[in-house]
Amino acid sequence: MATLLIRQARLVPVGAGVVAGPSPRPVDVAVTDGRVTAVGPDLPVHPGASNAEVVDAEGRWLIPGLWDHHVHLGQWTLASQRLDLAAARSPEDATAAVAQRLAEHPGYPVIGWGHRSGGWERDVTVSELDAVSGDTPVVLISGDGHHAWLNTTALLHLAMPVRDSVVREGEWFAAYARLSTLVGDDGTSPEAYRRALDSAASLGVVGLTDFEFSGGASDWLHRWENGCDRLRVRMSTYAEGLDEVLGLALRTGDVLPGVADVTGPDDRRLTMGPLKIISDGSLNTRTAWCCEPYADAHRLEYPSGQPNLSGSELRTLLERAHAAGLEVATHAIGDAAAAAALSAYAATGARGSIEHAQMLARADSRRMAELGVRASVQPAHLLDDRDLTEKIWQERAARCFAFRWMLDDGVDLVLGSDAPVSPLDPWLAIAAAVHRSADEREPWHGEQALTVAEALAASTDGWGTVDVGHPGDLVLLDADPYASFETSAEQGAWLRSMPVAATYVAGEAVHGEGVELG
After folding, report:
1. Does an H or E element contain 93, and which?
2. How many CB atoms are located within 10 Å of the residue 279 CB?
3. pLDDT digits over 128-144, tens only?
4. What is the pLDDT of residues 471-482, one digit of tens each?
5. Entry pTM
6. Do the beta carbons of residue 393 and residue 46 sit within 8 Å?
7. Which secondary-structure segment (H or E) carries 81?
8. CA-CA distance, 288 to 307, in Å (whole number)?
């Protein structure tokens, strides 16, 4: 019987209606075989425990483990190896960065990430990228992940038609899986995944939903066998992998085949997640499907964006998934996409989420609550999208990242990062939801902000204040997340720097083994 006994921890109140108050008195928390079995003062070590670990928290703050409900983990592991283009403010900035990288590493393919051309004054061309890159393949992935700017060599290598414009949406998603033919797969090895998981654990993350475009159950089992059994992982599938999942008879919540052979019959940390559907595009690529045209519609082939699937195609996918016991996670950025997705949920009875829900009508927020559809949102996106939204969606900005509407309407709200679009950092997401600004400016539509308690509750996978029966997924903090400040800016800065002393998954330490905890 494996037992973890945490002594003298302050339980941070988490859950609906929580109002932050004075720090509570420290208590002990016992975890046995992966579950919290006792909470109270001066708990004894369980008499049947053969290998009890006793940790003195010394008054630190204890919260349920944090979740990131939207991660592209393979892309996140690769992010550190890519050319960072987040600071590029023009095509010229980007091509200069490419030229510098090639001068430093001649002949090596360049994979860039993070430019946001939606705010640039003109469209880019393949020919200007060719001019600085020659025959070396160059692929510059937009910061929203929905398009890429490739040179001619890269287009040919990835078997795409030569053109003088960027590659968008479905064509790009299909090509992304072939990038390893350019750069190899060292960045997505089990060792690379392990490093990414350990980094997440250091921030208090105990679980994530992986929306990576490639791979499947066999890939995840291979990682599990090779040291990636660190956190809880829900593996999603896309339409291309749905037949494989159905062939394995996997339902949402089922443990992936083979896990029991690797880490034991009681291990439920690696499970099947939802079917992921990308129903429209993005703001930066101007492919998010909207009810009204973009302010710069004269530049666009589709003035209001467009759906990636017809209504019948969307309903068919939802019907298949629902009949097989799979939840559905439907990407919808624009308000037209959100409305269409909700109609499909209503027509099919499918369960699941709207991913992003970046712009929506108030009526659709209420409809989401009525249908029991979750809103899986990424607050840190508002930090990057603020200025572009004001420019091309204008007065509709008041309906963007409408977290307050959704909570007030009774929508189940969960937070994530969409890493690598935003960093895999739950405290950044929480801070963004609370403060809604990344600079000296006032909060952007502060009327839609969350309280710290609400943002924290949306980050714990539905688990409230640590109690008996909860999973032994726990995080010890060196500071009180509910510390009070005079301004939301001060509150946001406090949250972004929240120090994590230790993280436990199913009662096992995944971060903090070397921390002095008494």
Report:
1. helix 91-104
2. 25
3. 999 999 999 999 999 99
4. 999 999 999 999
5. 0.90
6. no
7. none
8. 8
